[in-house]
Amino acid sequence: MGRxxxxxxxxITGASAGIGEAIARDFAEAGVRLxxxxxxxxxxxxxxxxxxxAVETLAIDVAEPVSAQRMLDTALARFGRVDALINNAxxxxxxxxxxxxxxxxxxxIALNYEAxxxxxxxxxRAMKAQGGGAIVNISSIGANLTTAAAGVYGGxxxxxxxxxxxxxxxxxxxxxxxxxxAPGTTATEVFDHLPAASRPGAGSPVTPLLPADVAAAxxxxxxxxxxxxxxxxxxxxxxxxx
Length: 242
Hints:
Elements: E1 9-13, H1 18-29, E2 33-38, H2 41-50, E3 55-59, H3 67-79, E4 84-87, H4 105-130, E5 133-138, H5 151-170, E6 176-183, H6 211-222, E7 232-235
Parallel strand pairs: 1-2, 1-4, 2-3, 4-5, 5-6, 6-7
């Protein structure tokens, strides 16, 4: 039986769909109060209405430099504290040397890496001041795979993992824990821009992970006793071969 999370407060980015939505639903079942962050206000509102806990929503672009402080300020204004930050928002773009869209490079760096760093620092400072908390950054098994056409995405996820490990060491002894959940191929709308034949599960007997599987892994990290910190947790589909 894990640590009781009921009554704690979590901030989840990219919460309007996919893994972020699944984390919100899983946390709500555990009694966690939530600040849900994403760009799509209508989806956030619909999700909030469906959850059996106190929920605040914030429709912003997480990649904007001011967003990290806005998230913290909103959580503190509504709940008075924040116990967990889940940096989940991200963009998935791949392409060969000849086909990669260079205009996608800046937005990917801003959201997949810089936003994670900014939010982690802003929330870590507040968590240190209150005497504890947890930061979970969603990575990918792509961070440790050398795959053609996925160098930018994998490289940014690897950077998130190195940053997260460094932050964990930096915060040792403060009561603030830092961990990474790195899922394998997961069926979410992040792949919707790809041709149908290239999406998870298409033409393959291997069943991809579901967002709920990843959400359960994130909750597992937070349910550890306060003196325990799981820095890396990878979760694969049982049929995945890489």
